[in-house]
Amino acid sequence: DANMAARALMHMGVEQFGTVGIYGFNSPEWFLAEMSTIFCGAKTAGIYPSDRTGNVVFKLKQSKARVVILEDAGKLARLQPQKNDEGEIFNPMDDLPELKYVVMWAEGEKAPEFIESKHGKVPVVNWHDFMKLGEKTDLKDLEERQKKIKPGHCCSLIYTSGTTGRPKAVMLSHDNICFVAAVFIYSIKSSTIGTVACAERIISYLPLSHIAGMVIDIIAPIYLTARTPAWCEVSFARPYDLKKSTIANRLRAVKPTAFLGVPRVWEKIAEKLKAKGAQTKGFAKLLASFAKPRLLAVSKGQTLSGKETNPSGLFIARKVSAKIKAALGLEELKFGMTGAAPIQVHTLEFFGSLGINIKEVYGMSECSATTTISTEETHEWGSCGYPMPGIEFKVLKETKEGEYVEVKRAADLFNATEEEQGELCFRGRHIMMGYLANPDYKGDGGSEWARKKNMSAIDENGWLHSGDKGCMDKNGMIKITGRYKELIIGAGGENVAPVPIEANVKKLQPAVSNIMMVGDKRKFIIALVSLKVKGATGELAGTNKLTPAAQLVEGIETVEEAMESKEYTAKIWEAIQKTNKNHAVVSKGAASIKRFTIIPKDFSVEGGELTSTLKLKRSVVQKMYHDAIEKLYGPSVGRDDFFVKCFETAKKETEKVEPQKEPQPEKPVA
């Protein structure tokens, strides 16, 4: 099928080094579109299912795609005439002169035969007819094309999610993706994956346009099947599974042996389990309370710093664990992993108390997905493990003279000094070819833009500069402590890494869904807080109804009521204050949060605050809540006010809500 589809693409005029766009949710057709493009010596340009018209057009235009293979009428509508933000009609196809064919794999009954543009009519071809077109290209012509393909040729464009601006097209070669798939499969063999002749099963649900989805769901299964005794079966989630939090249904149906969950997915599973646990009573509650500390002790003992333990009653605890795993669909899981964003240690501990060990992996699009990995025998909660075989890794810091020097190894990975931290840098066969340039572009996406981006990403010695801040201990284990672009630099020049502080607040107060610190070039730091609400999935923002975990005060059931309640906001502030006083998290006064507000809705992909892999777009959120941020810093707010209500609610006009003040200690009696 892949060969036939490759021949069809050649018939459509896709040249060697040409581009084919792929736009839709994960499916067998997505796989075939990817592999057939590679087979005919061209490159793919994956488009996120959640991408809006502007990004869809930018990616197709910047990559000069000749064919786009998309899912259905909903995706096709992004290329048809529509209204812009000003209400004016425009045709996206007018901006895509190179696009000559549209292929739909789920065309429905009302698919048009073509779509119009000022450049002419562009045919819309259904999947069946597309495959038939392959018969019009001789197999020998495809084989001749394939003889010209070299390992160093580009086979895929991975567009970064664009948390700070226009997405960049990361060019990956055949060798890049084959190398990383090979060393990844080799690195996890201690979990027994690929070691015996049996089916290994995964669920494809992360966007295949994302590097993690491409490598874990497409390339690694092909490598595993071809080069190990095992074979891999890939099942597809439903497009709505993340939105409706029904991914658990797919887990129970598939029973995966390997599963990659971004932190938000693991957190959502944990929240549901905790909510169910809160309702459990009687003997079942007693049994869970008996099992969890024993399982947690065993899981901690399996970390590098842990001490192996065999607590009494472990046999019973493992029976309880088996039932929980079966309820989750994880009873046959051999390797559970997380990546794409930081995960909180208490989330790892929670799953450890269920007998499920989640391993952290680290990488980025620019290094073909994975650079470091935690394994069964070498993992530490809060660390992203060791560099995979064949990869060089250094922690570098720029000197005043502009040179990069390697910092000394951290004596304590989890309490590294500033001198022991620097930028995580790596090199090897997995490092990208560079960012794609389109000479037709004068700004973002153009030649000069790409030249500057490439120079800042890969230095003259071949080291990829990740932009992540971290450290390495004497054994070579890596820990990420922040991201340089996320660092808050206060008015006094203090550098503050927000992620560990935000994570600690969430750990202390389960009602908090998201918290984002703000304070760049400001005298102090404030925070935007969103609460856990029903229907919030990461994909969707949800409702204004608080979940049971967020109902901290009796009678307070909505976000608006929480904003109005002094008792409620005081409970949020209590968690912030405890974090401020925790010197292991907040090492200097300038890093403490002085004020906060509650925002009306949770962050989501739909709202634009999160990327498709649920990473926070900090710059977007700051623009979105600019007025609220300015109000928090406003001169009318008293020095001791810790909560400022920045959003109107349906409260009577006669009632005025004053900023809440920090309780003052009582004066001693004379």
Quick recap of the structure?
The protein is of the alpha/beta class and 670 residues long. Helices cover 31% and strands 20% of the residues. Strands 7-8-6-3-1-2-9-10-21 form a nine-stranded mixed β-sheet, sandwiched between helices. It has a five-stranded mixed β-sheet with strand order 13-14-15-16-17. Strands 19-18-20-22-23 form a five-stranded antiparallel β-sheet.
Mean pLDDT: 91
| Helix coverage percent | 25-40%
What's the total helix number? 19
Tell me what portion of residues adopts beta-strand conformation: 15-25%
CATH class categorisation of the largest domain: Alpha Beta
Give the strand order, joined by hyphens, for the main sheet. 7-8-6-3-1-2-9-10-21
Domain AMP-dependent synthetase/ligase: 2-436
Keywords: Fatty acid metabolism, Ligase, Lipid metabolism
Protein name: AMP-dependent synthetase/ligase domain-containing protein
GO molecular function: long-chain fatty acid-CoA ligase activity
Topology readout:
Blueprint: H1 2-11, E1 19-23, H2 28-39, E2 43-47, H3 53-62, E3 65-70, H4 73-76, E4 82-83, E5 89-90, E6 101-104, E7 114-115, E8 122-126, H5 127-133, H6 139-147, E9 154-159, E10 169-173, H7 174-187, E11 199-204, H8 211-227, E12 231-236, H9 247-254, E13 258-260, H10 263-279, H11 282-301, H12 314-328, E14 335-338, H13 345-352, E15 358-362, E16 372-373, E17 386-387, E18 392-398, E19 404-406, E20 422-427, E21 434-435, H14 447-457, E22 464-472, E23 478-483, E24 488-489, E25 495-496, H15 498-508, E26 512-518, E27 525-531, H16 559-564, H17 566-580, E28 593-598, H18 618-624, H19 626-632, E29 641-643, E30 660-661
Parallel strand pairs: 1-2, 1-3, 2-9, 3-6, 6-8, 11-12, 13-14, 14-15, 27-28
Antiparallel strand pairs: 4-5, 7-8, 9-10, 10-21, 15-16, 16-17, 18-19, 18-20, 20-22, 22-23, 24-25, 26-27, 29-30
Helix pairs in contact: 1-2, 1-5, 7-8, 11-12, 11-13, 15-17
Keywords: Fatty acid metabolism, Ligase, Lipid metabolism
Pfam families: AMP-binding, AMP-binding_C_3
GO cellular component, one term: membrane
